[in-house]
Amino acid sequence: MQNKFDLFDNIQLNEKEKEFFNVNKQFSNVIVEIIKKRLELNMTQRELAEKTGIKQPMIARIEKFDSVPRLDTLIKILDALDLNICFENIYKLQKKSYCTIKYNYKKIDYCFNDDKLTHVSESIKMIG
């Protein structure tokens, strides 16, 4: 499944632009994995919504790359699809929180707007 960031592979970008697109491409790969796993399980968006407690329109927006999920939302989705995840390097920098998420032997850096790390702590307790 091709994602929208693949379109930029052949465009000349400066270093800052490359970094932006690489981070977003990494994150979009997580969404692609979510879609693949959901389809592999023959699960509809509605069924995933029921299993996670997330509204179906939000699942659709996430899968269309129209919305970046909050960390707790992402955890609920990955957990519902039985994708193995763990967190590393949780830190905060200028009102943004960062962590590294490992899932199914892959690793992404995740940035989310949050004034506190409580959501991360609660989310980590939730999965394990």
Model description:
With 128 residues, the protein is α+β, with helices and mostly antiparallel strands. The protein is built from five helices and three strands. It has helices at residues 15-40, 45-52, 56-63, 71-80, 118-127, and strands spanning 85-93, 96-103, 106-113. The protein has a three-stranded antiparallel sheet with strand order 1-2-3. Strand 1 and strand 2 (96-103) form a beta hairpin. It starts with 14 loop residues before the first helix and ends with a helix.
Keywords summarizing the entry:
alpha+beta, 434 Repressor (Amino-terminal Domain), globular, 128 residues
Strand and helix map with partners:
Layout: H1 15-40, H2 45-52, H3 56-63, H4 71-80, E1 85-93, E2 96-103, E3 106-113, H5 118-127
Antiparallel strand pairs: 1-2, 2-3
Helix pairs in contact: 4-5
Tell me the strand percentage band. 15-25%
Number of strands: 3
* Rg (CA only): 15 Å
Bulk shape: globular
N→C terminal distance: 31 Å
Largest sheet, strands/sense/barrel: 3 strands, antiparallel
Q: Helicity range of the residues?
A: 40-55%
Mean pLDDT value: 68
CATH architecture: Orthogonal Bundle
Helical region count? 5
